[in-house]
Amino acid sequence: MRRLFTLCLLLVLVAVGAFASGSQQTSGESLVYATTEKITDMDPANAYDFHTWEIYQNVAGGLLKYKPGTTELEPGLAESYTVNDAGDVYTFKLRQGVKFSDGTPFNAQAVKWSIERVMRIAGDPSWLVTDFVDSVEAPDANTVVFKLKGPVGFFPSLVASVPYFPMNPEIYPPDTIVKDPTELKGGAFAGLGAYKITSFKRDEEVILDANPNYYGQAPKIPRIVIRYFADATTMRLALENKEVDLVYKSLNPSDIKDLMANDAYTTFQVPGAQIRYLCFETSEGTFSNNITRQAVAALIGRQEIIDKVFLGLNEPLYSMVPKGMIYHTDDFKEALGDNNVQLADKLLRQAGYSESNPLSFELWYTPSHYGDTEVNMAEVAKAQMERSKLVKVSLKSAEWATYVEKWNTKEMKAFFLGWYPDYIDPDNYTAAFAGTSGSAGMGIFFSNAQWDALFKKEQTSPDPKVREQVFQELQQRWTKQVPTVPIFQGNLFVFTQPGVKGVTIGPTMIFNYNTLYFEK
Amino acid sequence: MSTRVSLSPAGAIGKIFRSFSEAGRKYGVEWWILIAGIVIILAVAYIAFFPQTLAPYDPLDQNAGPQLGAPSASHPMGTDNLSRDVLSRTLYGSRTILGVAFAAALVSSLIGIPLGLLSGFVGGVLDRVISLIMDSLYSFPGLILAIAFAAMLGPGVVNITLAVAVIYIPTYFRLVRGQTLSVKEEVYVEAARALGARRPAIMWRYIFPNVIASVVVVFSLNIADAIMTEAALSYIGLGLPAGIPDWGMDIAMGKKFLPSGAWWMITFPGLMIVILALGFTMLGEGLAEILNPRLLER
Amino acid sequence: MEHQMKNLLKYFVTRTLLAIPMIFILLSLVFVILRVMPGDPVVSMLGAHAPPEVIEQKRVELGLNKPLIAQYFSYLGQLARFDLGDSMIFHQKVSQPILDKLPATLELTLTGMLFVLAIGVPLGAYAANKRRTGRDFGIRLYGNIVYCIPVFWMGLMLQLIFGIWLGWFPIAGRTGSRIFVSTFEKTGFYIIDTLLAGNIHAFIDVLYHLFLPAITLGIVLSGIFVRLTRANMLDVLRSDYVLAARARGIPEGRVVYRHALKNAFIPILTMMGLQFALLLAGAILTETTFSWPGMGRLLLERIYLRDYPTIQGVIVVFALFVTAVSLIVDLAYAIIDPRVKY
Question: Would the ipTM clear 0.90, i.e. be above it?
Answer without folding.
Answer: no
